[in-house]
Amino acid sequence: MSTTERSGSLESGAVAERNDSLSVTDNRTGESFEIPITDGTVKAMDFRQMKVSEDDFGLMTYDPAFTNTASCRSEITYIDGEAGVLEHRGYSIEALCKHSSYLEVAYLLIHGELPTKDQHDEWVHEVTIHTYVHEGMKRFLQGFRYDAHPMGMLLAGVGALSTFYPTAKNIDDPDERHMAAVRLIAKMPTLAAFAYRHSMGLPYVYPDNDLWYPANFLSMLYKMAEAKYDADPRLTRALDVLFILHADHEQNCSTSAVRSVGSSQVDPYSAVAAGVAALYGPLHGGANEAVLRMLDRIETVENIPSFLEGVKSGDERLMGFGHRVYKNYDPRARIIKTNVDEVLEVTGMNPKLEIAVELEKRALDDEYFTSRKLYPNVDFYSGLIYEALEIPPAMFTVIFAIPRTAGWVAQWLEMVDDSDTKIARPRQIYSGERERDYVSLDER
Ligand code: CMC
């Protein structure tokens, strides 16, 4: 029988002793067990002692989408979905967007603390001098078909980085880990921009290391014959805020993929390539594009009521609304909304914004959405910003991958250092045939 942990008094007034354990009776055998509860969690392995016979494997838990399974301990990102709170290393997303920069947030995610001035300057310098990729990488990307999806190119490019830095597989070496973190954050915009230029049939533009991170990215996307690409600072700042907003979101699909693949002790480039692959899927990185298509279809504010009726009758889905974790306004959506206004001040009004604002207002006034706790999520307004920056829809997920790299790297580093880490290897419930006689081909 498992041990029981006891803690101090719970309620004011009467001294109540709290028993932090779960009593379970296995009705198949009548046996009772006491399972410790730590951090509001029971260990799935504690159920294995529950058996119907000596040779029984023991009880397992079934949770196909990990909807109620904590896969790790983490100190990086905190989300309270009911309250609409998002914090990185204890700092609110609102404060970080207001005062910080993406590269500083990347440092915070990875190191756990905000950098001092010297640490900040050194970090920015390191990332900046590693933005170039090997010429072989350029030739590798040039081998793709003219219409290759930029996300497929990015995925292949990140995986290929492991062949350019073979010593990164020494994951126990702190210097190797550090260099991989720097290189991934530094080279992701370069690979993303090369993939974009390829899809446009344009020559690739090398990084301009005089520019700060988001300005350099825009330069690699859009520079033509001019000596220097000079993006409007309001746009680069807006892009930097978008990068901060997408930097990490705890154990989402792509981050879990990075941790799971990384648990095999493969090099970090290969582990992060798994994250890019997961993000490629429409249920993860692609919803902002769907929002734009939805706004296009609605066409005018007058059509909103009939569209919402379609949503309520189940014929439509209100894209950019709802979230598995947030049952309140996604705090990232609130920040992006202000950002949209600032960007459109520079680029000119987009008629889709008027439809989006009115759509949000009406949905938030409607019992169907409020009773289901459906609020705008990060994707409701981000597509409008990308569109204003003239970024084509195929690039939206690629742009998501750039800042999420900081989160993937931070989570990978935490996983590598965690003494609880073992190779990820779930169990299954086998529901197929057993012990069949093989029938030769000519007798089938
Ligand atoms: N439009 C209309 N109804 C919805 C929507 C929506 N966008 N989202 C959820 N519902 C309804 C759903 O039909 C269900 O109703 P009922 O109880 O009558 O069956 C109820 O709300 C609960 O929804 P659910 O499907 O159980 O929620 P979920 O946690 O499985 O799904 C979601 C979350 C994000 C997949 C879903 O809300 C959705 O499809 N939203 C639209 C797509 C979208 O915007 N995705 C971006 C997510 S944010 C990106 C990120 O953080 O990575």
| CATH structural fold name | Citrate Synthase, domain 1
CATH class: Mainly Alpha
- Whole-number count of domains: 1
> Termini distance?
52 Å
Order of helices and strands: EEEEEEEHHHHHHHHHHHHHHHHH
The biggest sheet amounts to:
3 strands, antiparallel
What structural class results from the helix and strand content?
mainly alpha
Shape: globular
Poorly predicted runs of 5 or more residues: 1-14
Query: Helix count, per DSSP?
Result: 17
Rounded to the nearest angstrom, the radius of gyration is 25 Å
List the ions, cofactors and other small molecules found in this model.
Answer: carboxymethyl coenzyme *A
Helical content band: 40-55%
| Proportion of strand residues | 5-15%
Give the name of the CATH architecture.
Answer: Orthogonal Bundle
The total strand number stands at 7
Strand order across the biggest sheet? 5-6-7
What would you call the quaternary organization? single chain
Word description of this protein:
This protein has one domain: Citrate Synthase, domain 1. It has 17 helices and 7 strands. The radius of gyration is 25 Å and the shape is globular. It starts with 5 loop residues before the first strand and ends in a 27-residue tail after the last helix. The structure holds carboxymethyl coenzyme *A (CMC). The site of carboxymethyl coenzyme *A has 18 residues, from loops.
